[in-house]
Prior knowledge:
The chain is α/β, with parallel strands linked by helices. It has a single domain (3-215), classed as Spore Coat Polysaccharide Biosynthesis Protein SpsA, Chain A, CATH 3.90.550. It is 41% helix and 20% strand. The protein has helices at residues 3-8, 25-36, 56-62, 77-87, 107-118, 146-150, 166-171, 182-193, 218-231, 237-258; strands at 15-21, 43-49, 67-70, 92-95, 100-102, 122-131, 134-136, 161-164, 197-207. Strands 1, 2, 3, 4, 5, 6, 7, 8 and 9 form a 9-stranded mixed β-sheet that branches. Strand 1, helix 2 and strand 2 (43-49) form a beta-alpha-beta unit. Helix 2 (25-36) runs parallel beside helix 3 and helix 9 runs antiparallel to helix 10. The longest helix is centred in the last third of the chain and has 22 residues, at 237-258. It is globular and about 50 Å long. It starts with a helix and ends with a helix.
Amino acid sequence: MTADTKQQAGRKPAFSIVTCTWNSAATLADTLASVQRQTWPEVEHIFVDGGSTDATLDMIAAYPGRKRLLRDVGGGISRAMNQGIEAASGDYVAHLHSDDYYAGDDVLATVAERFDAERVDWVFGSVQVLKDGELIPPYRMLPFSYRSYAAGRAAVPHPAVFIRRSMFARVGMFDETLKYAMDIDLWLRLGRVARPATLDRPLTVFRDHAGSVSSSNRIKARQEEFQVRKRYMAQAPLAFGIYCLRYAKRMRGLRAQAAPAR
C-alpha cells in the first residue's frame, strides 16, 4: 500500500524529523520545544548523535513523545543524516538540526496540507536567519525550476525541506563523500524527477554562528558546490554556464575578503 493510499484510507500522514546532535545542549532546547509544540499529531523524532559528552543525551532522554536515538554515529554529517533517513518510518522526512527550530506551531500542518493539495513529492519554504540574537528578514523566494536552480538563481534552504520518504529509494540519499554541498547534490537529483511545491513563508529559523559549517570555510564550500553542479551540467548546460559566471564573481569576493590587509 502506498503512502497516498494510506492517506486516502483516513490515516494522517506521519512526519519523521531527523535531528543530528553533537554536544548540542546550548541550543537543543529550542529545537525540541518547536517540534513538541507542533499542532500536527503524527510525528516521530529521530536523534542521530555523534558521541555527545555534554547534557545533550540527558535532554533527549527527558524529551517526551515518540522518539528514537542512534548513538555514536560517526563518519560526518552526510552519514548522520542518511542514518536518520534509514531509521525513519514516516511518510515525510525533514532534517532539523540541533541549532535550528521551527518558525511556528503550524509548520507541519501547513506542509501536510500542501502535500495533500498538490500531490507532490517534496515541499519547501524559506528560512529565517538568527544572527547575533536578531532575526533577519527572509530573502524573497524565487519560483523554482530545474534550470533556475541549476543556474544558482533559485535557492532550496535545507532546514525548510520536506521529502516524501519513498523518493530516497528513487533518487538516492546524501552523498557521504561531500562535506558542504551534499544538499545541493540531492536537490539536483530530486529536482530532475519531481517538481516541488513551495511555501512563501519562513518554516524554520537557522542560527548563523561561528560554528556553522555554512558560515566557515566558505571558499572550500563554494569549490565543492562547483564540483557538484558540474556533475549535472549536461542536464542544463546553459544554466550551468550562467552559474559559472556567478561562481567566478562570488569567488573573487570571497578571496578578497580572505586576503590579509596590507
